[in-house]
Amino acid sequence: MEQDQLKSAWNNLGGENKKKEELKKMISENRHPVLKGIRLQMIIEMVAWIFFLVFYYDMFDGEQKPFYLNILLVTAVLLLLTHSFLGYLSAKKPVNGNDLKQSLVNYLAKIRRYALISVASRAFSFVCLLFFFTATISFTTQKYWLLGIILVILGLQVFFLSRIWGSRIKKIQLVVKGLNE
């Protein structure tokens, strides 16, 4: 279809003539439903983690823990906050190329890196949290079992998060492969 035909079809759509400003509003991040959801989740997570950072020292006896564990905990939370923010920025600008195929290839490379960072940062952060909360515990057999269960759950979460990202990447790879054919 020629560009003039596309413009004509767009202009005739619904009998309304869409102006550039209207189109910009339609695709802006404030009106995009997926970005709204991601932004809302990011804001809720950031508020919760910041609340945690403000009060962890008193609520969870941070003063009784070694200094390096406090640093690890703060680093882990900052890593989670950075991860959320980078995810939002990544979703905000998915188009990055001259054409659809190049844009998808670039997006695939970007999402592969983000997936690796996502899984690694979540695992690292939760291990840091686990170290912080178990540093002053006197372990008994029951507590070792509980720790084992927590580690299994953590391992399952990392496994399933990896599978989810792998599934997303495969879908994009299939689209790119379809465009190559």
What does this structure look like?
This protein is mainly α. The protein has one domain. It has 6 helices and no strands. The chain is elongated, with a radius of gyration of 23 Å. The two termini are 20 Å apart. The mean pLDDT is 82.
Write the layout of secondary structure elements.
Elements: H1 3-12, H2 20-27, H3 33-59, H4 67-92, H5 100-134, H6 141-180
Features:
181 residues, mainly alpha
Determine the structural class based on helices, strands and strand pairing.
Answer: mainly alpha
Q: Give Rg in angstroms.
A: 23 Å
- Measured distance between first and last alpha carbons: 20 Å
- Low-confidence segments: none
Q: How would you sum up the global shape?
A: elongated
Helix-strand pattern, N to C? HHHHHH
The tally of helices reads: 6
Report helical residue fraction: over 70%
**Strand segment tally:** 0
Tell me the β content. Answer: under 5%
Question: How many distinct domains?
Answer: 1
Produce a short descriptive summary:
With 181 residues, the chain is an all-alpha fold.
